[in-house]
Amino acid sequence: MAELSQTKNEEEGGLSELSTDVENWSMLDVRRWAVNGARVEADSADILLQQKINGASLLLLDKSELSDLLGLGPAKLIIHARDELLKQKKEQPLNPVSQYGRQCKPYPFHRHHDACRYKVNSILDVTESGASDYIEPCHEYKAYINTQAIPVENKFQKFTDEVIRFASACMNSRTNGTIHFGIGDKPEFEHGQVLGVELQDKEGYDNALKCAIEGHFEHKHIRAARMCIKPSRFVEVLNLDTTTAEKYVIEVDIVPDSVICEENIYHIYNEKKAKKTKHKEMNKEEMKKQSKHFFVRDGSSSRNLRAPTSHAKPMEEYKRFVDNVKQLSQLRKEAEEKHLSIVKSSVQGSRLSEMITGGSQSLDKTHFQYYVIVTNKSHPIQLASLDFLPGLNPIAVLDFDPESAKCGLKKHFEEQIAMNVHLPERYKITDSIEDIVSKLKLSKNTSWVFCNGVVDKELPSEICDWLIKKGASVRDVISFLCRKDVLPHKKFLVIFLLLSTVSDKMDPLLETFSTFLQQLEGTEQILCICENENAFNCWRELIEARYGCNISARCIYELSLAEINGTMLSLWSVNRKSKRFLPGAGGSKVLLEKKVEGSLDTLNVLCVNQCEGGSEDKADIEERFYKGGEVSWWNFFFSEQPGSMPFIKRDKFIYIMNTIIPSLRSLRKACVSFHLRHIAGCGGTTLAMHILWALKDEFRCAVLKDRDVDFDEVAHQVVDLLKHDTTEETSLLPVLLMVDDFEEMDDVFDLQQHIDKECVKRNICARSPQVFLLNCMRAEALEERETTEDSVFIGNELSSTEQGQFEKKLEEMEKSYQNTETFYGFMFMKKNFSPNYMQGVAQKTLKSFNIEHKNAQLIAVLVLLNEYCKGATLAVSLCEEFLGLQTKPCCGSSRVEDGFGKFSPLLMRCTDEAKVIFSGIRMIHSSMSFHCLQELTTTYNVTKAEITNLLLNTDTFYECIQGKGRLLTNVHNMLVKRCHSKGTASQFSPLIQDIEKESPGAEETVLFNAAKRFEKDAIISQLLARYQYIKRKDFREAKEWARKAKDLSRGNSYIHDTSAQIIKSELTTALTNNKDSPITTDNLRDYLKMASLATEAFKETYEIAKKEATLRLQNKRNNNTFNTVGCLGEIQVAVLIIEILERTPVFSSGDVRHDILSEVLSDNIPIQKIIENDRLRHKHMNYYHVLVEFKDLLYNLRYRMKKHFDFLDSFYVHLGSRFTIKDQKEERTRQELFKCFHTYVKLFCKTDSAELLKNTNMGVMLQVHKTRQFLEKKKADSYSGILGCLSDNIAVDMETIVRKYAFILKNCSGTSVKERVNFFYANVALSCVKPQSRDLKPYNQLLDGLCQVLQGQIPSNDILPLHFIAVALLWPLNIPMAQPAASEKLKSYISQMRTSFHNEMKSVYNGKRPVVHFFLGEKPGYNRLIHRREIEKCARKGQDNFASLWENGKIWKQEDVKQLLCRVTGEVQRNVILADIRNTDMKIEVTPIFRSQISGQKEGNKVSFYIGFSMKGPLAFDIQ
């Protein structure tokens, strides 16, 4: 019955623990399988148990026998399930590892806090035994699995009875021993098989054992028994996949120390009777009545020497044993003394220090740049001794514990370090290496890789299945990490942290070790940490057996985890161990936890206690800086220490601190910026960092690590830094973020906008700036070098004050250093960058240069890179490989600087913060590259072309090494990136142009080599195409390269444009070559054919550009603007067609012919009509045949030109740069458009033909026609053109334009809505340029006319311009309005205007911002509208200064601006403002230009602001 009760509790259990060999099943196994596997009822399964059916008999049963026992239904189920089971077993391949073949060590004796667990069904590698040497424990196993259904008291009694019996036997035999509950024995189980016991009350076992000791032992021996019988130990049992089985093995250790047991003997009694005495002394009569036992260890069991026996002398053995106790006690004592005398001496502490640092003995200066941790199942006891792990900042942790996130290592450390959790599949190479590293954030945070599944995400695998199911993906992880372009060769250490014993030859950690061993080609980069010697021996033996290598020298095993932890922590300086703090409100400090700092992976955060407690070498750091290295926080820290000279303060330091920053603090904008422009190498970055250091107590300071990172992520982290450990907005301390070396100002403003949006998203109120951007940017052009209100310029000439500071500093340096003459970084500045001095350094260092030498080749390449890509680097690992230097994973290996030999003073190490962070080599100063190149050319006849070809043709530079992506980008930029100055466009990159000047013709070889190196690069193929048609005029070759470029990058409008440009250039060249000869019919056909092909190519470019624009709308991060080159190209070809036709005999003579051409191209007169009226048609007939052949091209010419002119006018007038900075490319396009428009006007906007004057009744009609031609000529035939004239300050003809429109409206009854709307725009424009003009229509009359138009039918094309001017003119002011009814419809007008804007501009809006044409002014009438140009005039400097003032909002603080504009009130409603309207309850929605100015505001809060009018609707500025 007990068995039945037990099995019922097991019905819910699974079949995973059943042996695969049915023959070995016990009766209980058969019952469990019948219920869970065959799915029969429990009653039927109970019958099988009663009939004692085990696995062997189950295999022999047939259907009839089972039917007799159970009935037909259960019998069929059981037979079917059994046969399926046998079939599956037959189909499955034999498992190489037996189900019960996995041996494991027992828990360490007399220990309770070791990290030891058992796996279910594993076999303890010790047998049940008796006494051996008294110290080695004997063992006894108890399955203890049939206790679930019995009462708790009986279960505890069964446990205590066994323990008391075993304990007394060990105490009498004087041997250590352990009794195990939950360990099976034959015949039902394998001997020593781990089964485990389900527990509910652990404490109950110890309480029961305590009572049992008191009840069973004699009163005088109770104290000794308690000392010898140790508390119960509950060893956790894991499933085969290392997940928790929720079972335990209960173990009790017996330690009969000689000082406790002395020469006593220990009887035990029946507990029931012993309790009655209540532990008092018993009299002899009572003792005789009780059952008295005396147990000793006899082999694998305990035997009672007082048990009844048939022996003639039953007590003889007992007496003999008692007489021998004295000798037994003495042997025990001697064994204890011998055991205690074994003391090991260890040097593994110093060995650990050596191996973990690569020989430097300091983790601050460790040879290894990265650490990879490989670990398995941890135990809660171990976690407290692993504090060293976060300090190592491992780049990756390969975790084989599937429960690590739930209760293991990952769970313990996730609050201490920033980590990204991955499964191994993420490391499969499906993209470029740099992109994978970037997506994984491998160089940013610790990558925690679950290598054997993870709870709730991926099922773990058992040891025997892991290799097949997960081995390949983990090998991918290891192969990826060991790539030279991921982690630097020989510069990372793999630490195997064995937290659980590895004892199985199929263990995943052994496979992992094998993969690392192969990838790293040895064990030099491997360190194994074992918790104890037993774990080490298992590990060593497995590795020796499998790989034949002795791992002992790379293992730490004699130290406890606590000792390892202490040793590792001692290798850090105080600075690295100390906590870091940020400034808080009111002078307080806020702790910056390591995990939080790790999550800010795009930022280098400067703390208030930066560098304090550090052990860095001052002399080494300062020498590195003064030789040309990058400045570090340590330089500022050392300069503040007693006895040091203060850090040199540049003149602009005071101006920034005392003027710029205080002025920015008063602005009401979430993110503001100021700019530090500098000539490369003149100390701009150093000054910027000096500013941060000086303000680190007032701001939360940080430096952006990588300018190419996603700005959304940067903005998020900046606001995280702002809000860290703050509870109220009033306590926020602003962030000062330094961004360095951005190439475009647009990027700075783009980042500023992202931060502004993030502040809105996080509901941060912008009563004052929350983030200050310090933009440190190189200034190449002279016009960028002026100091303004929010920007300063650092040039290459020191002031007298600065010169004096440098002199004093040199005197101080000469006292400490012997070689100050090689401190070139410092000396260049001190000598004001004297070209003679720098050329002298180049001559001295490059003396005896020989391009045949490897180091000479490498320095030449580095010089070239630094000249044409400022700040370019070569990875250290690349240089080592090129120079043939052997990298070793220990200190004292070859330094790459030594490999450069005599050229090394020109070089400096640096860290490149790219997608993959790597150590690189660069020139000490950007200016040195120019002088070195000059020296190489003039003295050693080494040309730029020769060096470039060396760089392009040497494969070593592009093999899988660190920095490959950055190098490819730099080489690509050198070849492709053009340098545009104001008003002019460069045709090729500076490098190509310089090669062409220095070695004419050599540039072609360079470009062909580039095409081989970048074989799949469309832009390089495009470059070859451009070179062939621009320089060589080889149009056939150019077309081939253009075709290849298109094949490589289909759908790219810029690539397609090249094909069109080639045809256009071919046409232009043909016309130029034939300019002095008459155009023959063959010429005409060829020209028009080329023109037709070019036109179609430009149309295709335009269509592709529209598709690109549509795709950009789906990607919010793509700010590229619409490509207008297709429109411009088609216009340019049309101009060429006009030129061709004007040179043909048909159209080349007289004004009449000119007018006929105009009519033909306007599709007003067909060519056939001209032929009929041409007196010379027989002479011109061949020309007419050609013209008819291309009539479709000709008839559409004016229409296509006008369409593109109008589109581009609208595009450029209504859409401006997102950051108010003039686009130089756009400026050049508009200049070209102006030239083309001049040709258009000359042909289509002039009518002098007498033919039109023959009909006298057409006088007024002709005047209207000529008037419209005049308006078209002045670009005043559209509202965009009128606004464009106003914006471009072209106001000379504005009075005439107004008069012309007045004439049309008066004399033409069929005037369109468009012309009436244009008349309104012309009057507004005239009021802006000449408000006193007599031609200006009275304001109220203009409003009346406007309202009349608004009440009529409005064509869809006129909705946007009409409603824009209506909103601007009818916006209610604090004065009586002439048209209150129209004003009440403003809401509707604004809504329709926004809809029309979206419909018309959505395809070209990307990367642009609607232009604000007018602002609402204080005065009535026309003066209510203030044109944007009037605001620009208020900026004291040029356009760039206005852009900065506009972005920061400082423009609104200027008094002259305040006097011009009207401040409107309103209330905050979600993300918009509802503007108040005088004398009415109506509210008009206005969009804030910077939403951060209303974020954090409560609904209904009153605000005031200025209103600007754009085509997208009214906008609110300077919200207060």
Explained architecture:
The protein is α/β, with parallel strands linked by helices and 1520 residues long. Helices cover 49% and strands 12% of the residues. It contains 66 helices and 40 strands. It has a seven-stranded parallel β-sheet with strand order 16-17-15-14-18-19-20, sandwiched between helices. Strands 23-25-26-27-24-28 form a six-stranded mixed β-sheet, with helices on both faces. Strand 16 (419-422), helix 20 (433-440) and strand 17 form a beta-alpha-beta unit. Helix 41 runs parallel beside helix 44 (1002-1013) and helix 54 (1197-1214) crosses helix 57 (1279-1287).
SSE topology:
Blueprint: H1 2-9, H2 27-36, H3 42-50, H4 55-60, H5 63-70, H6 72-91, E1 103-104, E2 118-119, E3 123-124, E4 138-142, H7 152-173, E5 177-181, E6 183-184, E7 193-194, H8 202-216, H9 222-228, E8 233-238, E9 244-254, H10 258-261, E10 268-269, H11 271-276, H12 284-289, E11 292-293, E12 295-298, E13 301-304, H13 316-323, H14 325-340, H15 348-357, E14 370-375, H16 380-383, H17 388-392, E15 396-399, H18 404-407, H19 409-413, E16 419-422, H20 433-440, E17 446-450, H21 463-469, H22 471-481, E18 492-498, H23 508-520, E19 526-530, H24 533-547, E20 555-556, H25 561-570, H26 574-577, E21 580-583, E22 589-592, H27 594-599, E23 603-606, H28 618-626, H29 633-639, H30 651-665, E24 671-678, H31 684-694, E25 700-704, H32 711-723, E26 735-740, H33 745-761, E27 771-778, E28 791-794, H34 800-816, H35 824-830, H36 835-845, H37 854-868, E29 874-875, H38 876-883, H39 896-899, E30 907-913, E31 917-923, H40 926-940, H41 944-953, H42 964-976, H43 990-998, H44 1002-1013, H45 1018-1032, H46 1035-1048, H47 1053-1073, H48 1081-1112, H49 1125-1142, ...
Parallel strand pairs: 1-3, 2-8, 4-5, 14-15, 14-18, 15-17, 16-17, 18-19, 19-20, 24-27, 24-28, 25-26, 26-27, 38-40
Antiparallel strand pairs: 5-9, 6-7, 8-9, 10-11, 12-13, 21-22, 23-25, 29-31, 30-31, 32-33, 34-35, 34-39, 36-37, 36-39, 37-38, 39-40
